[in-house]
Amino acid sequence: MYVVVAGETVLPVGGAARRPADLARAVRELEAAEGPRWVWADARESYPPLLERGVRVARCHDLALTEGLLLAYEGRYGEPRSARAAHARLHGLPVPDEQPSAPGTLFAPEPLGAETVAEVLADQLRRISELPEPGRFRLLVAAESAGALVAAEMSHEGMPWRRDVHDALLTDLLGPRPVHGMRPAKLQALADEVAAAFGHQVNPDSVQQLVKAFKGAGVALKTTRQWELKQIDHPAVAPLLAYKELARLFSAHGWAWADQWVRGGRFRPEYVVGGVVSGRWATNGGGALQIPKVMRRVVMADDGWLLVVADAAQLEPRVLAAMAGDVGLARAAGEIDLYSALAQSFGGERGNAKIAMLSAMYGGTSGDASKLLAVMRQRFPKAYQFVEDAAKTGEEGRIVRSWLGRTSPPPSDRWKELVSGPEGGRAARDRGRFTRNFVVQGTAAEWALALLAVLRGRLPEPARLVFFQHDEVMVHCPAELAEEVIAAVAASAAEASRLLFGATPVRFPMEAVAVKSYADAK
């Protein structure tokens, strides 16, 4: 292992420090010669400068991400996870908060020294070795750290984004780009229709004004959400619903958004690895994980290149089958369409099989769910009991863990107050629904991370990962490499399954297609 800190390479961990004149060159040479696992305090700070110099690394150990995983496992969820905080805890010193200093801050803390980074690393490796299943947790740390590399690389590479197509699409849907502070023409026309329907001016962006206007028209509303508006018979509803849809597009992916997030023909969001408690990713702005379908036509491969888009079919039910070791469910999960394979157990209806599985994983009880869950309990007892046990654990205020050891947050003080009061039963059930899904969703996130880690190592040059969302990946590659990339995706899915679950009959198929536009993949 080698440490990278504060623009320096220190070689090796525990050895004499060497500070090369050209960091990027030193890392590139070592990467080519030895392929080491690099150690850094936080990949978000250490890796981008290397990427800007054209240097990519194969493996790393991210101290901040690892510390967060360990703290949660040790029942200290939410404590500061930076390497600086970890070092302070190690020596009984005051723990600094998590807020990083902005670039150029006058009193920014001194960069961590190599000895400090190496000391935190040694402590983390010791703590991992003392866990009940250290092998699984090491895999989690490796996958999470690989995710940090992928996130930085995708932000650096960017998703192909045609500004001319984007502008044409917005102009078609909204009208020409308006003067700053004004509504686009079509949005204003819809706002005028809403006002005309009420007979007076109403700001369609104001929930308070809308509720008051509907009340004046004899309609009582609690919210202005779409599902509630659709139940109302009033001439303002249709233009208001159309306005809200276009207003979301204008705000979330309009011209101002593109000015901020699209540079050099690439959409460059900032991904947050493990940004959701289950291990799923989030973003610091940009909305990369919520690209509306209408916008997908703007994502277009470069000339002579293609986008290989792949997603895992029915990932969470397959993960449940593998974790629970349920022979019957695993047999069905050996097929491409798991729900069709299960249909016979649910009266021959594929839809019933889907409702039963989703209800088991998410705690649904409405409609036919209860009846279908009874069938699942009888036909697939191990899978049913697996999620029921997780739910019971949560209801009792305890924690649950994913397959590799990601730990759920403990119950909050507010929950403890609620559960001891008149609404206690409801609060307990709500937490049970969270924990029953956490074990499945968290493990699905781990499978996806393993897929990313393996796939980035299998991609032929110059193919690049440019998008990732839960169970979907996108690779930008020369057209002649598309078939090789599709094969790499399939092989990586199989390898991710082996890494997590060993020899399992459960299949994790990745349906991949090569397209010119993201819109053509769906």
From TrEMBL:
Recorded catalytic activity of this chain's protein: DNA(n) + a 2'-deoxyribonucleoside 5'-triphosphate = DNA(n+1) + diphosphate
Enzyme nomenclature, EC number: 2.7.7.7
InterPro entries reported for this sequence: DNA-dir_DNA_pol_A_palm_dom, DNA/RNA_pol_sf, DNA_polymerase_A
Gene Ontology MF terms: DNA binding; DNA-directed DNA polymerase activity
Record keywords: DNA replication, Nucleotidyltransferase, Transferase
Top-level taxon of origin: Bacteria
Pfam families: DNA_pol_A
Gene Ontology BP, a term: double-strand break repair
Chain ranges of the DNA-directed DNA polymerase family A palm domain: 292-481
Top enzyme class: transferase
PANTHER family in UniProt: DNA POLYMERASE I, DNA POLYMERASE NU
Name the record gives this protein: DNA-directed DNA polymerase
